Amino acid sequence: MKLIADSGSTKTAWKLIEAPGKTKDIITQGLNPFFRTEDEIFQELTNSLLPETGTNIQEIYFYGAGVVNQEKGNIVKNALARIYTNASIETHSDVLGAARALFGNQSGIACILGTGSNVCLYDGKEIIGGVSPLGFILGDEGSGAVMGRKLLGDYFKEVMPPNLRFEFAKQYNLTWEEALNRVYRSEKPNQFLAQFTPFLSKHEDSAYCQKFVQRNFMEFFERNVSHIPNYTNYPIGFIGSVAFYFSQILNNMASDFGFKETTIIKDPIDGLEKYYNN
What average pLDDT score do residues 115-128 get? Predict the structure, then answer.
């Protein structure tokens, strides 16, 4: 049996392939090794994944946010190996997973726009170029965490129009003291900030929200995509909830930057299943 995983900071989607045509979808918490230790990941897998799969797994292919080098990949790999002792295990970055899900064995520019953001140039097998995302404080342009951070700032600084400030206050009932504590003193501030992005989608018809999302996507293209050499020579694809829910604005922005072919999908797990069954 095979296990394939696509892990973000918020959740991990697993695909258990028991036999050709027989699969099972499983959801656990996000397993980002920047935020979780090997023991924490082991505990999460033991509690949430193992009861759904059993131990008779031969192959595991894990793609995850935070798997930026072998050291971080080994945190996840070692936790998995403690449970699935007979499995061969590969750990890769979430952006390689996005590329393989979007393009299979073809080349293209693969982007992630979810809680975080990322972009890479893919040659049909491996990543051959990209721009460091740098996280939600220094980078992650266009991501849910960054848009949530800016939205929260607009709310408390009263940049947001009064009617939307009223709706925001009614929906979240959040004081600035609570916000500062969650951002600066609590765990997983990126997830806390990303939870406000659906407010933009809910009020997408407002001029403020449209311009807000457009500015953030323009930053993503200017600071990331446009640094890929000859970027308009490739098709571009996007994975993630932010890309999916703001697909019209994203398509228009891609067109403005010269792309003729754009693919947007919410989750890569089905594309990864196809990749490993080819």
Answer: 92
**Residue-wise pLDDT tens digits, 157-194:** 999 999 999 999 999 998 988 889 888 988 788 888 99
At 79, which CATH number? 3.30.420.40
The answer to whether residue 253 sits within a structural domain is no
**Residue 203 within a domain:** no
Phi, psi of 195 (to 5 degrees): -65, -15
* Residue-number span of the structural domain to which 14 is assigned: 2-98+270-277
In a domain, 87, yes or no: yes
pTM reported for the whole predicted model:
0.83
Predicted confidence (pLDDT) at residue 135 exceeds the cutoff of 80: no
Contact residues for 266 (Cβ-Cβ < 8 A; gap 6+): 239, 240, 241, 243, 244
Given a cut of 90, whether residue 261 has pLDDT beyond it is no
Position 51, amino acid: P
Q: What is the DSSP string of 202-267?
A: HTTTSHHHHHHHHHHHHHHHHHTGGGSTTGGGS-EEEESHHHHHTHHHHHHHHHHTT-S-EEEES-
**Phi–psi pair at 230, nearest 5 degrees:** 55, 45
Task: Please tell me the total count of domains within the chain.
Answer: 1
pLDDT in tens, 201-214: 999 999 999 999 99
pLDDT score recorded for residue 278: 65
Does a structural domain hold residue 103? no
Instruction: Provide the sign of the torsion angle of the four alpha carbons 54, 57, 62, 67, taken in this order.
Output: positive
For residue 177, the surrounding DSSP H or E stretch is helix 176-184
